[in-house]
Amino acid sequence: MNSPAILISVTAFLALLLLLLPAFSLPFDVGDDSGWVVPNDHNDSRYNDWASTNRFITGDTLRFRYRKKDSLMVVGTKKEYRDCNTSQPLYFANNGDTVYKLNAPGTYYFISGILGHCQDGERMIVKVMNPLPGESSQTGTDRDFSDSSKITAVSVTISVVVAVVAAFLY
Ligand SMILES: *[C@@H]1O[C@H](CO)[C@@H](O)[C@H](O)[C@H]1NC(C)=O
Ligand SMILES: *[C@@H]1O[C@H](CO)[C@@H](O)[C@H](O)[C@H]1NC(C)=O
């Protein structure tokens, strides 16, 4: 094999790897580009609308991106969710970037731990199912199109760049 052939093979391999990556590692980005914040319109259904556009199964992960002074809590009951009761969370994080794994099927109640934020709509209910036969967790390519299309764009860009470099060198 001459050098350009090797280069093209390596590029093809890298592109394929990038295409397959989201199936194993990409968490769902909560709230997409806006992240975990108080919704502009203080609308309580904002995050629940986001959650209802996705299907979550055991083993999936959610990524929450938020301001350093904000926080994330998981509470155990619908009542605590409704009341924005922050006194006994099952989980708490405030590092600004939290990946939370949905370890078991059931209903998860996420709220902001900041007084007022939760009441203003920074809260979300997520229902997690057992995987269907043959379905594996975090198959982002099937269930979260936006992430896989981003990765595809990256891999296509890399392929083009390498092809241009190869054409230039040989
Ligand atoms: C909140 O948003 C939902 C749709 O996402 C809409 O149906 C509802 O009317 C909104 N509520 C308020 C108070 O704006
Ligand atoms: C908050 O939730 C805890 C745990 O469920 C409960 O013991 C407490 O009474 C609640 N506080 C309020 C103000 O509802």
UniProtKB/TrEMBL annotation:
Keyword field: Disulfide bond, Glycoprotein, GPI-anchor, Lipoprotein, Membrane, Signal, Transmembrane, Transmembrane helix
A GO molecular-function annotation: electron transfer activity
A GO-annotated cellular component: endomembrane system
Signal peptide per UniProt: 1-25
The keyword Transmembrane appears for this protein: yes
Residues covered by the Phytocyanin domain: 26-130
Compartment annotation: Endomembrane system; Membrane
Its membrane topology: Lipid-anchor; GPI-anchor
Parts of the chain that traverse the membrane: 151-169
Similarity remark: Belongs to the early nodulin-like (ENODL) family.
Name this polypeptide is given: Early nodulin-like protein 3
Annotated source species: Zostera marina (Eelgrass)
